[in-house]
Amino acid sequence: MYRLTTRTRAGTVTAIIVPLFLVAALALPAVASRGVIQDLFFILTMLTLAQIWNLLAGYGGLVSVGQQAFVGIGAYAMFAGVILLGWNPVLAIPLGALAALVLAVPTAFFAFRLQGAYFAIGTWVIAEVTRLLVAQWKALGGGTGTSLPREATSSILGTDAVRALFGVREAAARDIMAYWLALVLVVAVTGGIYWLLRSRLGLALAAVRDNVDAAQSVGVDTARLRWAVFLIAAAATGLTGALIFLQTARISPSAAFAVTDWTANVIFIVVIGGIGTIEGPILGVLVFFALRSALADYGSWYLMTLGLIAVVVMLFAPKGLWGLIASRKGLHLFPVRRRLTGPKIEGGI
Amino acid sequence: MIWLDTLVQGILLGGLYALFAAGLSLVFGIMRLVNLAHGDLIILAAYLVLMGVTLLGLSPWIAALIAMPVMFGLGWLLQAAVLNRVLGKDILPPLLVTFGLSVALQNGLLEAFSADSRRIPVGALEGASLDLGLVTVGIMPLMTFASAIVTIIALNALFYHTALGRAFRATSDDAVTAGLMGIEPKRIFAIATGIAMVVVTLAALYLGMRANFDPSIGPARLIYAFEAVIIGGLGSLWGTLAGGIIIGVAQTFGAALNPEWQILAGHIAFLAVMLLRPRGLFPRAVD
Amino acid sequence: MLETRGLTADYGQFRALFGVDITVAAGECVAIIGANGAGKSTLMRSITGVIGNAPGMVLHRDEPIGALSSAEIMKRGIAMVPEGRRLFPSLTVEENLLVGGQARKVQGPWSLDAVHDLFPILGERRKSPGTALSGGQQQMVAIGRALMSNPELLLCDEISLGLAPVVIRDIYAALPRIRQGGAAIVLVEQDIGKALAVADRVYCMMEGRVTLAARAAEVTREDIHSAYFGVAA
């Protein structure tokens, strides 16, 4: 009669609307301008990074400020695949995940030795070290960076088909390919995290988040859990980094390992939207993009404002904008909490 | 002889890093708070001192003396109005708030002072050096190192021989029971952050007199400070000095081999210590 | 001097006190007895501001203090010997004593010397870390620490808990001298015999309520038994 469920009415609505939305998004390049596609590519990749960071910090309690290490190494691995191995750029993207995974092992080894808050700066140190080492990699341009060779960008898988389909120029076709890949990636990452949170791993994460000692006493292996979350997040971040720099087709250590772009902005998206929810980063990235567009002409005022907004949100609405909405309306589009359903229990204990 | 010279330069540079780290160590020791804006606050203090010198025509020392109470007030206010509200069992809110502050401060400074490199003018002292026979050392690095030692002695005296220091340690041990002793933990935290900002001002003075600075270099100072604290072992200021010296020596030797390796060598020394002594060189018995 | 009026306290959803009324007069010794979980310690935590209350629920000299912080309440002269002693591990014995007196500086009978006179072992071990002492000695430090502020009211939460009988005897032997100094004492105890022997009045608590309030000299075994366990003897 009683059963545990994560189903909510809004969640069911989500299950219907999301596929429709995706079909529309896939078809969008037929009508949208190249500028819109580029903006959407930016939004989708930032959303992917935000969902991953949210998994790390919001669900896993691992506050990393060194995610730029994985964006950067992922991007550089893709460039290495293209320039040094002569791979097609699209096929070289998975190299980004692989390289990030390889980097994540020593990173976790060092950073997990640091207690609590010091973990955050520890990850930052590793990112700096990685950036400085990559800047020594002369074959990929050293400190000044390099571009994808012309013949590689023009031969990106699928661009010919896109050109034929939409009748656009090669550069625009490349943006459309990148946009589609970003769409696939954001759905895979968001869906993957959603699935993860509803699995046994998600239950263990929730237990650890509530009380580490209690979780350990009921047999949750917290050390393994932290490793698993960190490695998964690193691989996904590396993949995203590779895709981001496939679209820009130019790389340098300072751009690929930028703490502002790949970690600060991502943290602000999650904090403003609502940490520890799947809906939060989605809302956050929209607010972020709106602010960015509105304040684009004001230079560093923009980042200053963003930083201050994040501070104010943490002080007065620590669950972010989505937290405000969810608490007022009880709305859960991506329900992950397990609730007991069945006839109302009469009487008290 | 060149190697001896490099070694001495590195040790003296360690004094600067110990000054960066002392404030961070103090705040962490008392309230388990890691302030990610620490490096940017150093840069803010450097601009404050610079303004005293360029706008008011003061000597850097006087300008720093004036900047110290200003920074104390700022630290006090930051703690009382912002950080005290997010301190708690969950480490996420204070980390995110200080990270937001770091980005806001960095970009605020950029807007106010532009990205140009600046330096605090010191006149004749700048190039002055002392011939010690085997090596020649700059007066400025020597003063930095001496200041680091004096600062550590002063902070230790404050910690272990005053009523305020007792209150610091009691609050760090057990804030609830400290409250029962008539100590307001939040007030203690605000004073501690204020004191940390005074040390930050001293660090900023030497940073600005010895080398060029601009709004973007704060996070790197935070990282050096953090490395010095971790190498030394949490809670020991003399350990922090040792940590600063290790980073400083690694950096000068790295730079002697190849200028591009200076920063990298410091980080690698840190990682090596982490590998061999995960709790640092001088860990406290209890955390 | 101290009074609680309909004091309630909650831990989240769980209510621990249901309208507790007690009074303590100046110089008086009051025992609060009750089984584990009766709400005695919660009462102490409420009075000392560790748990926040509505302002009017706790009155000190007829002024509401329920909303004050622990530190403000302590500075009014209400000192606490917390359950489990709670010495500061990074402070020496002497520093533990000094930290108790540094926030409230009033004239009175208690000083470092007076505490050393009361518990001579604390003078001998003054440079030891507080937590290096035996349980009984730590309890002496905790009492001395509270006395250092020359309080007008001393709240003692389970000062005999976990100690050997001979040690408990030593500690209780100090109570008359503390009363001579003028402080009122509230003793929270599970050891009914010990508490009744020194107290003027006694409150018994059960499940977050006061079930008995009487003069210690007049109370009978049967009264206590029914108030303590909720059943007649």
TrEMBL record, chain A:
How this chain sits in the membrane, per its record, is:
Multi-pass membrane protein
Enumerate the Pfam families for this protein. BPD_transp_2
Which InterPro entries does the record associate with it?
Answer: ABC_transp_permease (IPR001851), LivM-like (IPR043428)
Which keywords describe this protein according to UniProt? Cell membrane, Membrane, Transmembrane, Transmembrane helix
The record, for CDD domains, names:
TM_PBP1_LivM_like
Tell me where it resides: Cell membrane
Q: Report one GO cellular component.
A: plasma membrane
Keyword hit for Transmembrane helix: yes
Molecular-function GO term, any one: branched-chain amino acid transmembrane transporter activity
Bilayer-crossing residues are 42-62, 69-87, 93-112, 178-197, 227-246, 266-289, 301-322
- Tell whether Zinc-finger is among the UniProt keywords: no
Instruction: Write the protein's name.
Output: Inner-membrane translocator
Which organism is this protein's natural source? Mesorhizobium ciceri biovar biserrulae (strain HAMBI 2942 / LMG 23838 / WSM1271)
From TrEMBL, chain B:
| Alphabetical UniProt keywords | Amino-acid transport, Cell membrane, Membrane, Transmembrane, Transmembrane helix, Transport
| The keyword Membrane is annotated on this UniProt entry | yes
The molecular function terms in GO held by this entry are: transmembrane transporter activity
InterPro entries found in the cross-reference section:
ABC_transp_permease, BCAA_transport_permease
Record's signal peptide: none
Q: Which GO terms describe its cellular component?
A: plasma membrane
Could you list the residue ranges that cross the membrane? 6-29, 41-58, 64-83, 95-114, 134-159, 188-208, 228-249, 261-278
Topology versus the membrane: Multi-pass membrane protein
Output the Pfam families linked to this UniProt entry. BPD_transp_2 (PF02653)
What are its GO biological-process terms? amino acid transport
Q: Where in the cell is it found?
A: Cell membrane
Is NAD one of the keywords UniProt gives this record?
A: no
Which superkingdom heads the taxonomic lineage of this protein's source? Bacteria
| Similarity comment | Belongs to the binding-protein-dependent transport system permease family. LivHM subfamily.
Q: What is this protein called?
A: Inner-membrane translocator
What species is this protein from? Mesorhizobium ciceri biovar biserrulae (strain HAMBI 2942 / LMG 23838 / WSM1271)
TrEMBL record, chain C:
Q: Name one GO biological process term.
A: L-amino acid transport
Can you tell me which family this protein belongs to?
A: Belongs to the ABC transporter superfamily.
Please give the InterPro entries that the UniProt record associates with this protein.
AAA+_ATPase, ABC_transporter-like_ATP-bd, ABC_transporter-like_CS, BCAA_Transport_ATP-bd_LivF, P-loop_NTPase
Q: What keywords is this UniProt entry annotated with?
A: Amino-acid transport, ATP-binding, Nucleotide-binding, Transport
Question: From what superkingdom does this record's organism come?
Answer: Bacteria
A GO molecular function term, named singly, is:
ATP binding
What is the name listed in the Swiss-Prot or TrEMBL entry for this protein?
A: ABC transporter related protein
Q: Which residues form the ABC transporter domain?
A: 2-232
Which Pfam family, just one, is annotated for this protein?
ABC_tran
Q: Does the keyword ATP-binding apply?
A: yes
Source organism lineage?
Bacteria, Pseudomonadati, Pseudomonadota, Alphaproteobacteria, Hyphomicrobiales
For this protein, the record's PROSITE patterns field holds: ABC_TRANSPORTER_1 (PS00211), ABC_TRANSPORTER_2 (PS50893)
Give start-end ranges for the coiled-coil region(s).
none
